[in-house]
Amino acid sequence: ADQMEKIIIKLLNDEKAAIRREQSLAKKRSQKNKKISGNFSKMKGKLNWPVNNSKVISKFGKNKTSLGAVIDNAGIDILTTKNNQVLAVLDGVVSMITFIRGFGNIIIIDHGDKFSTVYAMVENIQVSENEYVNEDSIIARVSTYEKNSKRGILHFEVWGNQKKLNPESWLKKRK
Predict the structure, then answer these.
(1) Which of 10, 92, 123, 124 could, after both became Cys, cross-link 111 (CB 3.0–4.6 A)?
(2) How far apart are CA 172 and CA 166, in angstroms?
(3) Residue 99 · residue 120 · CB < 8 Å
(4) How far apart are CA 117 and CA 175, in angstroms?
(5) pLDDT tens sequence for the chain (175 residues)
(6) Max CA-CA distance within the chain?
C-alpha cells in the first residue's frame, strides 16, 4: 500500500506530465463539447460504480482484520465476479499502468483538476498510457484473487489534491 501511495504522489507531483494530461483532456473535452474544468469536483455522489453486480467488502480508512490487526485502506475493495468489466467512472487520460505486488495490475486515470482514480487487481487491460477514455469505457477486467475462483476483487481509490478520498462518497448511492 505504501508503494502504491508513493507512486501516486510521485505521479501527481510531476507537474510537466500533469500539464500535458490536462491539456490533452481539455482538447478532447472541447472536441466533445464537454465542460473543460471542474468535472470531477462536481460529481461527488454522482459517479457510476467501476463494476456492476458487486458489493464493498472493505471500506475506506482503518479496518480491523479477522486477526485483530488494523489496516488503513486507501480505497475500497469491491467483491464481484472474475472477468467482470471495469469501467472508467469519468472521462480522463490514462496517466499510468503498472504492476505492484499485492495489488496486481493498476490503472490510474487523471480526470483533471488534480483528481485521479485508481483501479487495481485488474487484467486484460484495454487501454494504454496517455490514452483518453470516456466515462463508462471498459478499461480492463477484474482478476481473480484465488486460484480457480469465480470471484474477483477490484481495489478502487479516489485521489484529489494529493489526498486519499473516500470513494463511496463519490459513487452513486446503491439501493
Answers:
(1) 92
(2) 13
(3) no
(4) 23
(5) 677 888 887 877 777 887 888 888 878 777 776 665 557 888 999 999 999 989 999 899 888 877 888 888 899 999 999 899 999 999 999 999 999 988 999 999 999 888 999 999 999 999 999 999 999 999 999 997 666 678 899 999 999 988 999 999 999 997 6
(6) 52
